[in-house]
Amino acid sequence: MSNDYNYDYFNITFPAQYVAQVEINRPEKLNAFIEIMWLNLSKIFSRLSTDPNVRAIVLTAAGDRAFTAGLDVKAASQGTLSAPTSGAIDAARKATALRAHILEFQACLTTLEKCSKPIIAILHGISFGLAIDMSLCCDVRIATSDVKFSVKEVDIGLAADVGTLSRLPKAVGNFSWVKEVALSARIFGAEEAIRVGFVSRVIPAGKAAAVEEGLKLAKLIASKSPVAVQGTKELLNYSRDRPVEDGLRYTAVWNSAMLQTKDVADAILSGLEKRVPRFEKL
Known about the structure:
282 residues; alpha/beta; 2-enoyl-CoA Hydratase, Chain A, domain 1; Lyase 2-enoyl-coa Hydratase, Chain  A, domain 2; 2 domains; 4-stranded mixed sheet; 10 strands
């Protein structure tokens, strides 16, 4: 597959059929994000969401030191986080501009959650602040044993505002622990992350091995019916935020259309004939 995905600070490759790998690429700055990066991140995943040649995505980061150290605070201090000069703009107008900026940032990260293709995040090294925001928008989180996590925002004088405080409590099911790490910004590691359910797997052999495991899982997912896989992600995300009854009702409506796919017959027939099924692009 030809690669015409060209975006600053990201490498996009296609290491296997129907599998895309998105690599954050600013290792000299610990992959810290500047504005163009989160704008490009949104563009990349919006495009992958509708690319019929992609069925699963692995999100990684260049270099051995960090997945991402979070927001590039130095760059932000010269922009959004900089204090206004006295009398330059009143509080209401400053708040209106900041709110619009925060909503834009939130929307960029939510693009990953709304992406129709499953995303597997491979977390290694320093994974602070934005790393947690971003990975919570992914579907599967795999970590290396040397990972260092932190909900870092209180250390720079603000409450995390692009997703962690809304998504982390739903991801781990221990509200006391969520409050502890969010209020203290303390660093925690892979063992604690898997114990509370923040990650589903820890790979002790390092980043390369973790990426390999992520790609292996992505290939497995990509071998399934794209109708079934994308429907499963949609229904899980919908049901997570709503009562069981609402989730069941939506599932019934969804599958009343999607059960009409010939993928069901193809999957059953391939099982009976003991062969690997091949599904058409969606």
